[in-house]
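$ ./design --mode recover --in tokens.txt
reading tokens...
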């Protein structure tokens, strides 16, 4: 996320890392978002603390699609996945960002030089809040218990010091076994709850979405995004809504394709079908050609029609006598 106002420690961006299952959040204020910087934070602050993930899902930012970061993931045996361009529904981090931005904006506005010092408090708030998708707090799913918050301090402090008696050792073993059992039951419930939530969200989404049957090789129009020149956005009203035609060159998922623009061969990246509409060839304005036989028949019919029309016209004309008529004598000059 960012850039934000530069702090006294030269922090301008915020790296957000979210565990897909528990929704546990890690926030890291950073000076730059280069591939090297992100890789160092992941290996030193995340992977060595929680273990190696099966895959990393990120947007299509240059720091994630670079050769260095791809090589970093391959070396650690991590599968790399990307979200569709301008379609953040598949990115869990994008949902966290929508919740985090209003909270962070308050600190960035009131404390522009020290907002990075408040990030840990925001992370704690996200970790201890019940998540709608899982029905549990990320902290409980991660550690098997909810951390104490200031309100819990009225209950009293836990007993300090290692166990000193056999009874205490037995109690610890019982607690450990119960914790493992409860975590397994909780994880099963979370998986069931998450699946129900996904089905519910998909049902709501499908009500407002028309089914698009597209295959590799099809031609489509792709929705335009607001272009930028020199960091300034161009008015969307002045730009065409779609670009293309484009060809679907590879299917990456049920609703995502790799798209290539035909006019210049530019790869538009991973694109969701929500941003596409099928391309149809424009209809030709040329009249269908007529064969020679059809032409001769047409000309013959036209000639016959003309002759028939002339004959009928002559028949309808009034007949007049061809003999010469003489003037009456009274009109003759010789009568005077």
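writing sequence...
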């Amino acid at each position: 996320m960012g850039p934000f106002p530069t702090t006294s420690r030269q922090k301008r961006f915020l790296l957000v890392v979210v565990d897909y299952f528990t929704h546990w959040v890690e926030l890291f204020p950073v000076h730059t978002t280069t591939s090297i910087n992100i890789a160092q934070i992941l290996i030193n602050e995340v992977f060595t603390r929680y273990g190696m993930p099966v895959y990393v899902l990120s947007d299509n930012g240059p720091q994630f699609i670079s050769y260095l970061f791809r090589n970093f993931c391959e070396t650690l045996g991590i599968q790399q996945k990307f979200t569709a361009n301008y379609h953040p529904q598949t990115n869990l981090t994008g949902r966290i960002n929508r919740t985090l931005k209003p909270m962070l904006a308050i600190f960035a506005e009131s404390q522009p030089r020290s907002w990075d010092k408040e990030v840990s408090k925001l992370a704690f708030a996200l970790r201890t809040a019940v998540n709608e998708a899982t029905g549990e707090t990320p902290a409980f799913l991660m550690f098997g218990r909810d951390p104490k918050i200031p309100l819990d301090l009225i209950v009293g402090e836990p007993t300090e010091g290692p166990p000193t008696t056999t009874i205490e050792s037995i109690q610890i073993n019982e607690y450990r076994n119960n914790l493992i059992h409860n975590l397994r039951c909780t994880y099963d419930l979370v998986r069931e709850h998450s699946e129900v939530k996904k089905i519910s969200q998909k049902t709501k989404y499908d009500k407002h979405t028309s089914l698009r049957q597209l295959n590799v090789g099809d031609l489509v129009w792709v929705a335009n995004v607001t272009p930028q020149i020199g960091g300034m956005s161009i008015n969307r009203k002045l730009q065409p809504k779609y670009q293309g035609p484009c060809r679907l060159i590879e299917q990456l998922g049920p609703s995502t394709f790799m798209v290539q623009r035909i006019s210049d061969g530019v790869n538009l990246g991973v694109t969701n079908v929500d941003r596409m509409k099928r391309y149809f060839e424009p209809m030709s304005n040329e009249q269908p050609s007529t064969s020679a036989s059809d032409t001769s028949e047409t000309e013959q019919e036209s000639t016959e029609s003309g002759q028939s029309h002339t004959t009928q016209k002559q028949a309808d004309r009034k007949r007049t006598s061809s003999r010469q008529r003489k003037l009456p004598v009274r009109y003759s000059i010789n009568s005077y």
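exit 0
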